[in-house]
Amino acid sequence: MAGVDVQAARATPSDDKNGSQAGFKSGTGVASSYGFPTSDFRPPTSVFRVVISGYYGFQNAGDEAVLYSMIQALRSFVPGLEITVLSHCPEQTAASLNVNAVNRWRLTAITGAMRRADLVLSGGGSLFQDVTGPESLLYYLGVVVLARLLRKPVVVYAQGLGPLKRPWSRWLAGRVLNKVQLITLRDSESRQLLEEIGVRRPPVYVTADPVLGLEPENLDLRPAQKKWQEMGLKGQVAGISVRSWPGAGNCWPALARVADDLVTSGWQVLFLPFHFPADVDACRQVARLMHQPAAILRENLDLATIMGLMSQLQFLIGMRLHALILAAVMGVPFLALPYDPKVAAFARLVEQPAVGSLAGVTCMSLTAAVQEALARREEHGQRVRAAAAELRPRALDTARLVVEYLRKGAIGG
Questions:
Q1: How many of the other CB atoms lie within 10 Å of CB of 26?
Q2: Where in this chain does the record put each Polysaccharide pyruvyl transferase domain (predicted)?
Q3: Which run of H or E residues covers position 372?
């Protein structure tokens, strides 16, 4: 884990101790309207310190939304919680979220942060998977091993487990995860995989993705409305969120045809990249195949503005999991394009349609799927809003479990 030498960053003093980003109304931070009654949990008599490990500081809007949601949820129960994030860009993480941050590639910085911590949180997101290569899995399991070598308790925080395709990946993940103190997962499919790889020792809870705990009512919509006007958007707008993925380019012509059909039938189309700059390139590839005009968001905006833009959509076609999750939070019906099992699993969870297989998408099949989704848009909107409301308190359960363990001293090294 040694690497680029970037100094540790520390949060600057802020009036908002919950670490909220610009774009949420002051005095009403997201944490203040979470569903859990914080009065049920007495504040600790001493300051707790936690370290968070995940895919942070890489300009991925989905993962940054996860981190923001985790911080808000934890501090809704323990306002004075001291948080240190392992980040690819520690200065930016510290400044934007009112946390401490250290370079995720510096072993000495990570070790120092862990020595001072009461608990190490692994997550959220999909950290324990080998689809993107073995290096990622080895890194995140290595963080867990380091914490346990330092006799620090570890909690897996609302993760989606897998895919784990290599036999050694499954063996190693099972062996390491049996050493943690508590596991919370965002879906039942992850729990099934956990059982398959032989994880038996720690308590396991299925909660929900942290982002589902966000309350959209506290958004300041003005930045999003300004951006909306700058892009010349009005009337019915459909969002499209795509990403680069092996084989995904084969369905770009079909997606471009569907986008053209939407425009000719009176819709406007907005491409929403979630990972910069890779997703911008994918969006441009689809847009170049279109014969009708479409808008592409080219800026890496803060979470509140992204949520505000999402709230203006009437429909979304998406590959990115957290584009779909934010759509659900904002009550926007969607059609999922599953490139990974986690995308299909979430679509089922919130009762939204999905194409069967991204690899098998054709112009005819995608057009039919979009037409059916649009015909049932009102019904799907009602379903996704009901599902999101039901999942919101479950998303906060993870933070509540962590705080209960900390308060009661139930986690031991």
A1: 11
A2: 60-341
A3: helix 363-375
C-alpha span between 351 and 97 (Å, rounded): 33
Q: Indicate the residue type of 399.
A: A
The DSSP string of 271-315 is E--SBTTHHHHHHHHHHHT-SS--EE--S---HHHHHHHHHT-SE
Percent of the chain with pLDDT over 70: 88
Q: Give 407's pLDDT tier (boundaries 50, 70, 90).
A: confident
Of 3.40.190.10, 3.40.50.2000, 3.40.50.150, 2.40.100.10, the CATH number of 30-213+392-408 is 3.40.50.2000
Instruction: Name, in order, each residue with C-beta under 8 angstroms of 328's C-beta and a sequence gap of 6 or more.
Output: 212, 334, 346, 350, 352, 384, 387, 388, 391
- Amino acid letter, residue 33: S
Position with higher pLDDT, 361 vs 87: 87
Q: What single DSSP character describes residue 24? A: B
Query: Is residue 207 within 8 Å of residue 186, measured between CB atoms?
Result: yes
Tokens linked to 119: 């608990």
Q: How far is CA 108 from CA 6, 79, 127, 308, in A?
A: 11, 28, 22, 39
The model's pLDDT over 358-403, given as tens digits with 9 standing for 90+, comes to 878 888 999 999 999 999 999 999 999 999 999 999 999 999 999 9
Give the amino acid at 404.
E
CATH number, domain 216-390, options 3.10.129.10, 3.40.50.720, 3.30.450.40, 3.40.50.2000: 3.40.50.2000
Distance CA 266, CA 327 (A): 21
Specify the pLDDT at position 128: 98
